[in-house]
Amino acid sequence: EVMFENYTTTLNIEVATLVDMVETGILPACAKDMAKYSSMPALAGERKDVYIGIKTENDKLKALFEKKPHDLRAEATYFCDTIKPQMLAVRAMVDKAEGLLEAGLYP
Fold first, then answer.
1. pLDDT tens-place string over residues 1-56
2. CA 94 to CA 34: how far, in whole Å?
3. Which residues contact 21 (CB under 8 A, 6 or more apart)?
4. CA pseudo-torsion sign 10, 13, 19, 24
5. DSSP H or E segment with residue 32
6. Exposed, middle or buried: residue 64 (CB in 10 Å: 0-12, 13-18, 19+)?
């Protein structure tokens, strides 16, 4: 039971941190980068799709997080099987954006 509690506590913190980083750092940086292409959107490449993908995947993570069970064992299983894969999806989109963002904008 102690291990489940430690695991779920750690994942609760990691999810909250990831969501906060995306919402306060990554998405604002993406918006600033995208604004630079407003007069020439054809030069933006895949930026729009990637940046919107970050928002979409982060919103999915928040929605899944809100549905977590309150039983310790069930919560640990839910984090392992549902939350962690979604965290990886968010991180994959952010990694893709990192290669697109102007270096000075990446938080």
1. 899 999 999 999 999 999 999 999 999 999 999 999 999 999 999 999 999 999 99
2. 15
3. 107
4. negative
5. helix 27-35
6. middle
Closest CA to 35 of 53, 51, 23, 54: 51
**Which tokens hold the place of 51?**
């940046």
Q: How far apart are alpha carbons 83 and 17 in whole angstroms?
A: 13
Do the Cβ atoms of 4 and 76 come closer than 8 Å? yes
Give CA–CA dist 98/101, Å, rounded. Answer: 5
Distance of CA 40 to the CA centre of its chain: 28
Q: Which residue has the tokens 């549902």?
A: 82
Distance CA 49, CA 40 (A): 16
